[in-house]
Write a structure and sequence with these properties.
Length: 235
């Protein structure tokens, strides 16, 4: 696994995209999606300077995180069920996949239990794909204020999983719409939302051009997945 070369290539592509968009590359954070990767591979990635990792499943994270270097930060990026909130709140430093008020309330409850405040991103299903989770923009408007009142939750921004396509230009409108939606949420809340988590292996350059502050990269970094699975989550 050519981790070092892969990471260098990703960083160069981010820098190129930032140059096209007149952005500073330091404004883009790389989250390494470690789904299906063992703790020793995570440690190798950490040795290359990566410090932020994302997991799609709580159960996998429970076994992996204790074996990985303790200095790392972990985000939950997959669909989260309410009955997994206790573990998710204890394991992760951010939950990126809040897609309902009910889930936010459960996260708030367990955050209070653990005496911590949980940063979250609100997951938006911009394209309205039936197979994917996430708020519709219209439903988000209904719940935004209520989520913002939960005392142990901090809304840091928005996240989306763009439709799969071999032509990244086709999903540029999705990323643009998320950026515009974030700006609208900022106006409603009267506060800045610093995180725009969008872009994965196949489309992250376009996402950066459209304002992504965090990209979630799996196979471009770690190589092809060990098991074939449908692309249905933020990985």
């Amino acid at each position: 696994m050519e981790l070092s070369a892969n990471l260098q290539s990703i960083r160069q592509r981010v820098a190129d995209a930032c140059q096209r968009a007149n952005r500073d590359p330091s404004t883009v954070t790389l989250l390494a999606v470690s789904k299906n990767q063992p703790a020793e591979i995570v440690a190798q990635a950490a040795d290359l300077g990566l410090s932020l990792f994302g997991e799609n499943r709580v159960q996998e994270a429970k076994t992996k995180i204790p074996l990985a270097p303790g200095r790392l930060r972990w985000h939950m990026i997959g669909h989260l069920q309410s009955n997994k909130c206790r573990d998710a709140v204890s394991l992760f430093s951010m939950i990126q996949s809040v897609d309902s008020l009910a889930l936010a309330i459960e996260i708030n409850k367990w955050s209070a239990h653990f005496a911590k405040t949980m940063p979250v991103l609100l997951e938006i299903n911009i394209a309205g794909e039936s197979a994917k989770f996430g708020y519709s923009p219209e439903k988000l408007a209904d719940d935004l204020a209520a989520i913002n009142t939960l005392p142990k939750i901090e809304i840091h921004g928005l996240m989306t999983v763009a439709p799969y396509t071999q032509d990244p230009e086709k999903v540029r409108p999705v990323f643009r719409r998320l950026r515009e939606l974030k700006q609208h949420c900022e106006q409603i809340l009267g506060a800045r939302l610093p995180v725009l988590s969008m872009g994965m292996t196949g489309d992250f350059a376009v996402a950066v051009e459209e304002g992504a502050t965090m990209i979630r990269i799996g196979s471009a970094l770690f190589g092809p997945r060990r098991t074939a699975q449908a692309r249905s989550g933020p990985e």
